[in-house]
Amino acid sequence: MDNKPDVYRRELVDVQGVPLFWSIAEEWSQVESFESRPDDLLIATYPKSGTTWVSEIIDLIYNNGDAEKCKRDAIYNRVPFMELIIPGIENGIEDLKKMQSPRLVKTHLPVQLLPSSFWKNNCKMVYVARNAKDVAVSYYYFYQMAKLHPEPGTWEEFLGKFMTGKVAFGSWYDHVKGWWEKRKDYRILYLFYEDMKENPKREIQKLLKFLDKNLPEETVNKIIYHSSFDVMKQNPCANYTTVPTFDMDHSVSPFMRKGISGDWKNKFTVAQYEQFEEDYKKKMKGSTLQFRSEI
């Protein structure tokens, strides 16, 4: 029996106070008990913060800039989304178990929900953070096209949910701050989307140093080219067009939409901007984290 439609557009379910897809919540014990390996590299982000971009960069680094090797499969198979479980359709945990080391592992989990084996094994982790207003806009369009999410409602309604953390993977504020604090005690490289946009070469050099890899300049330039937005947008192994339409509808909004900084200016009204900024100050008070809303 074709039961695909009924897995979509369902309400989120709280796991330890964090709203997640119903199917992740139902299979939470599988996620919680996930066994990492010491040479795993975890790529952690809040959704719509450059996850696919940094995943492609790191896969290129792991393959010494060989773009053809990186076309061996779609990005979501090369870098499995660990906690994503949809009964009968997908299971990130099982996919990872079958993978040879060294594995690249993707997660959107806030720091407190990460399986404890990652801390125990002292795995290296790369976290990418993006400014909240651009994330909110990108997430709104993503909610529209990726049907595992509940209906987004209007932009105004969605923005309210985003500000109160009532979206998949919870509060952006808690997420970026939680990982920021954790970097003091573990091997976490904390990168910013805006820095990557501004100077991809500098940020790739940081990644190489963190990963103890040495690549010649011409290879680094190749990585910059192949991981650029325009090239990735045309690459079916990176742009998610291979995902079935019943799951992601690119005619509603492409998975890779604009990939710029400052697009929030095209969406926020003056009133929304003012309300958002006031709320932002309260929620980020006391944190040393600094974001740029444009570059």
From TrEMBL:
One of its GO terms (cellular component) is cytoplasm. Pfam families: Sulfotransfer_1 (PF00685). The keyword Cytoplasm applies. It is an enzyme of class 2 (transferase). It comes from the Eukaryota. GO terms for biological process: sulfation. Its EC number is 2.8.2.-. GO terms for molecular function: aryl sulfotransferase activity. Keywords: Cytoplasm, Transferase. It catalyses: 4-ethylphenol + 3'-phosphoadenylyl sulfate = 4-ethylphenyl sulfate + adenosine 3',5'-bisphosphate + H(+). The keyword Plastid does not apply. It is found in: Cytoplasm. Its main location: cytoplasm. Residues 38-287 form the Sulfotransferase domain. Belongs to the sulfotransferase 1 family. PANTHER family: SULFOTRANSFERASE SULT (PTHR11783). This is Sulfotransferase. The lineage of its organism: Eukaryota, Metazoa, Chordata, Craniata, Vertebrata.
